[in-house]
Amino acid sequence: MDEGKSEELKAAEKKEYQNLVNQVKPKPSVLANCLWAFVVGGLICVIAQMILNYLVSKGMSKSDAGSAVAVIMVFLGALLTGIGIYDKIGEKAGAGSIVPITGFSNVIVASALEFKREGYIFGVGARIFSIAGPTLLFGFTASVLIGLISYWFR
Amino acid sequence: MTAARKIGQQSVKFSNPPVISGWAAIVGPKEGQGPWAKDFDKILDDYLYGQSSWEKAENIILQETVQTAVAKAGLDTTEAELLLAGDLLNQIISANYAARELAIPFLGLYGACSTMAESLLLAAMMIDAGFFERVVAATCSHHYTAERQYRAPVEQGVQPSPSSQWTATASGAILVQPGGSGPRITCATIGKVVDMGVTDSANMGAAMAPAAGSTIKAHFEDTGRATDYYDLVVTGDLGAVGMNLASQSFIQQGLVPPPAYSDCGVLLYDGLPDIKAGASGCGCSAAMLCGPLLKKMSRGEINRLLFVATGALMSPTSTFQGESIPGIAHALAIENI
User: Fold this and answer.
1) In a domain? residue B26
2) What are the chain B neighbours of A93 within 8 Å (beta carbons)?
3) Does B119 share its domain with B216?
4) Cystine design at B301: which of A93, B181, B220, B296 (Cβ 3.0–4.6 Å)?
């Protein structure tokens, strides 16, 4: 901590401290968290599947129904974010509510709500994809690459 | 000429210990549910406090806290000669806007969550040096303004780490004068920036604990006081994880652990459910000092307090660039003499 110590000694002290921090730090309960993620993530998928089955039973084609389900799930995620419930679910469910499409909807709506006070251009407009941006960028990039691969190797 | 009031490496001893003549704390709804509700001057019903944004609410809270502290010393706000204040937000906007409305000559400070100690020790120095007679030291934090600047949008569903802390919505202000009745600031230790390589922004207690240990050790070395001199040694916002690490660092540094040691971050939400590692933020240590701690001092339940506010000098930019989080801590000895 004092100047005059060699770099090596400082590095060793830092390493030792890091070990101590790792010992002291409370561990997240992996099993409980996984269980929550599994149940909540699964539940979201079951709901989506029920909607899909219902739409198909009403005579919609399977690919049309798939698109409609995505739209409905995004709407539900946005609605639950807007009324302040989705973040409560996320606290418990972790990846269970982040990975499904409702989680994507949650980060976009949460950003939009958050930056509304800075106006529609510099707030909502500029910041709405501040969290979802990477997903969109790398999602689009991956889709283009896969499209090219499928075109060349078909 | 030697510095007559400097003692040891990094401490000062006041020749005429400045008096804490007025103090006030305003807290948010969550802080009002904790064990210290009756010790705060005001508890907000909601986080917006009638304003159109959380940022505006935060600066109004700071303004009111300053006004209350000055009023409790029997003075009018216009009689305050200098305001030393800071907060957590970029460009310390809460302090700047509060100072605009209060129209008190103003020096803005940034010490992250150590700002209460930083502002108070500067106020005490200015009083003891004879530059001013009525100086206000103040700071504040707001959970939602800090959350959106440092972490994620509020409505985003993220799972908090068990070592994470909740930024307190709270503020504290202290009027310092050369004389009068009230607890006195007898000496102070200015901390060094200490960085032990912690990069986890969800474990700020661990980032700050070495700084607290360093400053507390320096304080006892410089003043020659025994660690049991104080009725209470209290750190700012290390939280449960950081407090544990600080306790271990006392022993590692060859310091006899202070018999009564606690942390404002652990105390503020004591007993509330699901609080992870506790509280953080400038307002955490400020409200604990300007609420329960100074109240206990004025009743004589605590006569010698070592107040060590701790700050994690973190920036999202440097964190994303892979920098570790530097910590700082300043110590103030507050005594009934």
Assistant:
1) yes
2) 157, 159
3) no
4) B296
